[in-house]
Design a protein that fits this description.
Layout: H1 2-8, H2 12-21, H3 26-44, H4 49-55, H5 61-72, H6 76-87
Helix pairs in contact: 3-6
Length: 98
């Protein structure tokens, strides 16, 4: 949160109050952003799931799996497979794109 607080030129507590007034928190926003970025990477790249996890700022793949299961009801691999028809290709995360 430190970087965001500095960029906004507000105190940490002021940012927390503003977010609470909107019914959210920094942690919730961070989870949403991480999930959205992971969904994009899984749907539109051949990046391995372990790397997707690291790119979105999660230290362990298990954290990404848990985030996906609790918010989408799917695993990251399930998401990748479900979105494959949308782009007309069945991705294999272990091989580079053509």
């Amino acid at each position: 949160m430190g970087g965001a607080v500095h960029a906004l030129a507000l105190s940490r507590r002021t940012v927390q109050r503003h977010l609470a007034a909107q019914g959210t928190s920094y942690r919730n926003i961070l989870k949403e952003v991480r999930l959205e970025r992971a969904q994009e990477l899984l749907a539109f790249s051949h990046m391995p799931i372990t790397l997707v996890s690291a790119v979105v700022g999660l230290r362990k793949v298990d954290h990404l799996r848990r985030l996906f299961r609790t918010t989408t009801g799917m695993t990251p691999l399930g998401w990748r497979q479900a979105t494959a028809p949308l782009r007309g290709v069945v991705p294999n995360p272990c091989t580079p794109p053509p």
